[in-house]
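Try this one yourself first.
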């Protein structure tokens, strides 16, 4: 078995290792490292490609050159931010991703050898049609992403968050090393004051790293009504960077998130603008333009791509307000890390059901979504592969299992992958709330202080820099326009026809909710055909991406939902 690299820095295509490794251009933002070609001790020269920010690239290169995977893993663990790296030495290929898989890397193993790619859509060709795994496709349609290492194509796997791989060029043997897993221990000790101090120090460390990397450039912050983007804004102000901060909101005009964000920005004294959805040009772009190309590459063979910010960012760039090379930072995924996703109750017999209902219900009427046996099978296999020592009889152990599952699968595979829009548009990005210092802290914060985000919210309210937290969380309302009329019509339907009719009317009218800026990509005709099956817009985006994958492979739809969707598009 041989090894070759599908995706290297542009302009560096070459044959190395007596023809046993082939290098191809990778997609931005991957690029040749500052010390791309260097000589070190031991095994000679190495070639280095990186994405994101590495604080200590030399330590990684040296460990690779002496083929010391333990030293390589220690160097990776010392990196607090988001990055990807690939190193080629005379006899091996190395690849690694950060703790949250900020820049994905994929492997394809087969009779022809091992390939590494930073863009897995390179395998979405008709030649690879036989590799499509229909079971994975069904799970994808339920969750919007694949599970574990697997992807939609047999033999194509992802490098897991907190993982590095070593591939021997001569034999093609792959050695995987998991240098980090977010597996909370909840074993930290200290008073409430101690934890407030530690949290403040970790947030400060994350923001200080962001400012060093920004180096005076403007930082763009998508601002919402929540606490996470607000916390970043307040910390930037506290650290004296307010004059370089630009904020914006987007979505359906009049949405609650934007209204609150506008007030927060005004109080902070920073610029704010609202980016309205575009017209039919955005719809065409989504189907057949630059956005369509982005969608296929961003989701590729493993997850649903995000179009949430795509056209808002593009409008800012096209209008000259934002410049390529500037930094965007958002609040992902503060709500998860600080305890906002911890269930209030989690019995040992309810874990498969809870995870299935929360993460595999994009189409809750699908037969697979209702199959408890499938839930047990999928999650038992996941546990055996990634958490074999889980203690589900221990109440705290059940929370550890759930949080580890969501971190590895939904957060790292689906949520963090939304940064691909920034990459595509030539913007740099940072995720300070996924900083290593914060992850290490919340792995130890006692469970009681994480429930309901108690520590996090209490800290923010007591700190309350600039009074930005005077306004707490606002009650969610989905209706930016016609709210009283819609609620009145739904109440009338309930009185005349019953509760089911009331809920049905609401579901039909969600097309006009604050999600309208997302539903618009599909139009009323598609929404009207599928409203009974949908959980939210993510359902349609998962269905749409699977259709794009099948089209690229030249494979026909297999599930009834897919056939209906194809017929609607063709009609």
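Now uncover the answer:
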């Amino acid at each position: 078995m041989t090894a070759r690299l599908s995706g290297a820095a542009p302009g560096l295509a070459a044959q190395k290792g007596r023809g046993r490794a082939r290098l191809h251009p990778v997609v931005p933002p991957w690029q040749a490292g500052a010390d791309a070609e260097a000589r070190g001790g031991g095994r000679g020269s190495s070639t280095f490609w990186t994405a994101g920010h590495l604080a200590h690239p030399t330590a990684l290169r040296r460990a690779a050159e002496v083929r010391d995977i333990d030293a390589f893993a220690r160097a990776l663990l010392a990196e607090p931010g988001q990055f990807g790296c690939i190193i080629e030495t005379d006899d091996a290929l190395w690849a690694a991703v950060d703790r949250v898989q900020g820049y994905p890397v994929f492997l394809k193993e087969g009779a022809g050898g091992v390939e590494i790619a930073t863009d897995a859509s390179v395998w979405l060709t008709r030649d690879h049609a036989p590799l499509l795994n229909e079971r994975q496709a069904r799970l994808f349609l339920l969750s919007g992403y694949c599970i574990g290492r697997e992807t939609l194509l047999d033999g194509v796997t992802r490098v897991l968050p907190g993982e590095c791989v070593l591939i021997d060029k001569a034999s093609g043997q792959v050695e995987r090393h998991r240098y980090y897993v977010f597996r909370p221990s909840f074993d930290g000790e200290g008073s409430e004051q101690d934890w407030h101090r530690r949290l403040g120090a970790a947030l400060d460390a994350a923001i200080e790293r962001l400012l060093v990397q920004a180096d005076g450039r403007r930082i763009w912050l998508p601002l919402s009504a929540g606490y996470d983007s607000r916390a970043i804004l307040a910390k930037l102000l506290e650290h004296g960077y307010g004059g370089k901060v630009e904020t914006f909101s987007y979505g359906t005009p009049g949405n609650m998130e934007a209204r609150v964000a506008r007030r927060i920005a005004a109080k902070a004294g920073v610029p704010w603008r609202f980016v309205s959805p575009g017209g039919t040009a955005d719809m065409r772009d989504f189907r057949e333009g630059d956005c369509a190309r982005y969608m296929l590459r961003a989701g590729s063979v493993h997850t649903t791509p995000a179009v949430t910010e795509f056209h808002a960012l593009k409008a800012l760039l096209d209008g000259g307000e934002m410049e390529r090379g500037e930094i965007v930072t958002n609040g992902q995924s503060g709500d998860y890390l600080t305890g906002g996703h911890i269930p209030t109750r989690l019995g040992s017999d309810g874990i498969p059901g809870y995870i299935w209902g929360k993460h595999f219900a994009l189409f809750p009427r699908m037969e697979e979504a209702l199959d408890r046996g499938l839930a047990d099978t999928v999650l038992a296999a996941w546990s055996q592969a990634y958490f074999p020592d889980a203690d589900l009889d221990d109440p705290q152990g059940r929370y550890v299992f759930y949080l580890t599952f969501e971190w590895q699968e939904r957060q790292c595979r689906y949520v963090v992958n939304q940064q691909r829009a920034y990459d595509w548009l030539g913007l740099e990005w940072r995720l300070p709330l996924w900083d290593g210092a914060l992850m290490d802290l919340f792995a130890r914060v006692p469970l009681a202080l994480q429930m309901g985000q108690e520590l996090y919210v209490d800290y923010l309210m007591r700190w309350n820099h600039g009074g930005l937290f005077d306004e707490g969380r606002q009650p969610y309302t989905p209706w930016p326009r016609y709210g009283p009329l819609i609620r009145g019509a739904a109440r009338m339907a309930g009185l005349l026809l019953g509760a089911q009719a009331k809920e049905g009317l609401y579901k039909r009218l969600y097309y006009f909710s604050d999600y309208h800026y997302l539903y618009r990509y599909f139009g009323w005709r598609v929404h009207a055909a599928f409203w009974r099956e949908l959980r939210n817009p993510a359902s349609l985006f998962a269905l749409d991406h699977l259709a794009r994958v099948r089209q690229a492979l030249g494979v026909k739809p297999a599930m009834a939902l897919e056939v209906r969707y194809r017929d609607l598009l063709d009609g």
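Discussion: The first helix runs from residue 57 to 65. Confidence is low (pLDDT under 50) at residues 4-24, 36-42.
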